[in-house]
Design brief:
This protein is of the alpha/beta class and about 240 residues long. The protein has 11 helices and 10 strands. The strands form 2 sheets. A 6-stranded mixed β-sheet has the order 6-7-8-3-9-10, sandwiched between helices. A 4-stranded antiparallel β-sheet has the order 2-1-4-5, covered by helices on one side. The longest helix is centred in the C-terminal third of the chain and has 16 residues. The protein binds adenosine-5'-triphosphate. Adenosine-5'-triphosphate (ATP) binds next to helix 1.
Length: about 240
């Protein structure tokens, strides 16, 4: 679509002989939250990994800011402003909060302004500032998710790829993570969010895609998907 920051067109991907994505197409508009919802194993993480350059697609185009991503190494994608916040958070448990954050400033662009970015992250997440010298492995799941988000921001992203940020979190933390995502959008960030937590994810999403067995089943504004009978039946228990 014109004006999209990301356009994925007919993406196919496999693990060995097993195909898991089938002609997946979607768009991400700048300054919006685009959500991929779907059950366990639907293929959400594989889409994220394909975008980050961790899984090579069989075919399809990944147009980011007018540029084809296929063929670019992961680090080149990070340099161009793509930041993956992976499922499971993957913070370094034996390093402090601040060391984890500094690791996020990997691209040359991010490195040059990284002290300022660190202060911005601390302003956004005061809890991380309080705990800056603590080992990341000693923090709660929710705090580690904040740290993973903060580390992603340190890369000065133009497109944030968030893979299941609420996985395994207590309900109060789930709410907080969604509030942060909304704040980031309001601050102008563009977010592609993969979530199993369909209700909240769809309430937040500007645009949403329902992924079923590696295929896009439904697409539309988040609120419209919330009202769709197949979503209500399968994901909202109604
Ligand atoms: P989840 O929330 O469980 O991560 P998902 O929607 O993100 O689900 P994917 O992780 O993308 O789904 O998995 C899609 C399919 O690919 C599943 O059938 C899964 O078993 C399979 N799969 C994922 N990773 C691998 C791998 N490294 N090797 C082989 N198969 C894999």
């Amino acid at each position: 679509m014109t004006g999209s920051l990301l356009t994925v067109h007919e993406l196919n991907a496999s693990y060995g002989a097993v195909q898991v994505l089938f002609d997946v197409s979607f768009d991400v508009q700048p300054g919006s939250v685009t959500t991929l919802v779907g059950a366990n194993g639907a293929g959400k993480s594989t889409i994220m990994k394909t975008l980050a350059g961790l899984v090579a697609p069989n075919s399809g185009t990944l147009l980011y800011d007018g540029r084809e991503l296929t063929g670019l190494a992961s680090h080149e994608r990070v340099d161009s402003g793509l930041s993956l916040i992976p499922e499971g958070r993957l913070v370094f448990p034996g390093m402090t909060v601040e060391q984890n954050l500094r690791l996020g400033a990997v691209s040359p662009n991010a490195r040059s302004g990284h002290e300022q970015m660190l202060e911005e992250v601390y302003d956004r997440f005061p809890r991380l500032k309080e705990r800056r010298w603590q080992l990341a492995g000693l923090m709660s799941g929710g705090e580690q998710q904040m740290l993973a988000l903060g580390r992603g921001l340190m890369a000065r992203p133009r497109l944030i790829l968030m893979d299941e940020p609420t996985l395994g979190l207590a309900p109060v933390m789930v709410k907080q993570v969604f509030e942060i995502i909304a704040e980031l959008r309001d601050a102008g960030f563009t977010i592609l969010l993969a979530e199993q937590n369909a209700r909240v994810a769809l309430e937040l999403a500007n645009q949403a895609y329902l992924l079923e067995n590696g295929r896009v089943g439904l697409a539309g504004p988040g609120r419209d998907l919330l009202d769709a009978p197949e979503v209500r039946r399968a994901y909202l228990g109604m």
